[in-house]
Amino acid sequence: MTARIGILGGMFDPVHNGHMQAARTALQLLEFDLLRLVPCHVPNHRNLTLCSAVQRVAMLELACERDEKIVVDEIEIRRGGISYAVDTLKQFKQEYPEANFFFVLGSDSFDSLPQWHKWQDLFELCHFAILNRASFDISESTRIATAFDLRKVKSNKELFAAPSGKIIVVEDFDYPLSSSQVRARLGANESMDGFLDESVARYIRSNNLYHSEVVRN
After folding, report:
1. In this model, does residue 213 exceed pLDDT 50?
2. pLDDT above 90: percentage of residues in the chain
3. Is residue 110 part of a domain?
4. Is 156 contained in some domain?
5. Are 202 and 22 in contact, with CB atoms under 8 Å apart?
6. Predicted confidence band at 179 (pLDDT cuts at 50, 70, 90)?
7. Which CATH number characterizes residue 188's domain?
């Protein structure tokens, strides 16, 4: 049977409970065999990370150490340079030619897809699994550019029937938490209960992260 591999990328600076809830929700509802958390090396449209690649990977490994089907993949860090999703998916397809890939992202991120590097090529490489917030609606311009209504499927059966190019939406995934909020709370020495896995919180405290001088990759 063809392996189904979910991909969830990001800066993970730091990884927080919202990231992990997204990963677990996608893994369960979309019946992936495995989900790979892919920390970027250098983001294309954002500021540089505050923690080093080594630190971000360490936190990710702590966050998912109890999840057998969620793994950390350093593919973008090993490759170096600016991290483009299309390069990552092409490399995955070369390494795992028999697998089908599912790119997991929020509805706001999908709405920006037409601004991504060589974004059209992604539909030849993977499916898209959108975690949709009830308060967010994908813009008409993105719907037209991506042929959203033609690509959208309503069930896993429809999704798995094609090797790539389909879109499935997980409705009402509301987890209003961002890494910037977490960093602000860490900087203010506020409680991290409900925001971070306890092992990640301990790692941050023991390494004095997000309090001292900025560390760059």
Report:
1. no
2. 77
3. yes
4. yes
5. no
6. confident
7. 3.40.50.620
Number of domains in the chain: 1
Instruction: Residue 142: give the domain boundaries.
Output: 4-206
SS3 string of the chain? Answer: CCCEEEEEEECCCCCCHHHHHHHHHHHHHCCCCEEEEEECCECCCCCCCCCCHHHHHHHHHHHCCCCCCEEECCHHHHHCCECCHHHHHHHHHHHCCCCEEEEEEEHHHHHCHHHCCCHHHHHHCCEEEEECCCCCCCCHHHHHHCCHHHHEECCHHHHHCCCCCCEEEECCCCCCCCHHHHHHHHHCCCCCCCCCCHHHHHHHHHCCCCCCCCCCC
Identify whether 40 is part of a domain: yes
Question: Look-up: residue for tokens 């979910």?
Answer: 6
CA distance 1 to 108: 33
| Structure confidence by residue, pLDDT tens digits, 53-96 | 999 999 999 999 999 999 999 999 999 999 999 999 999 999 99
Does residue 216 lie within any of the structural domains? Answer: no
User: Could you tell me the pTM of the whole model?
Assistant: 0.92
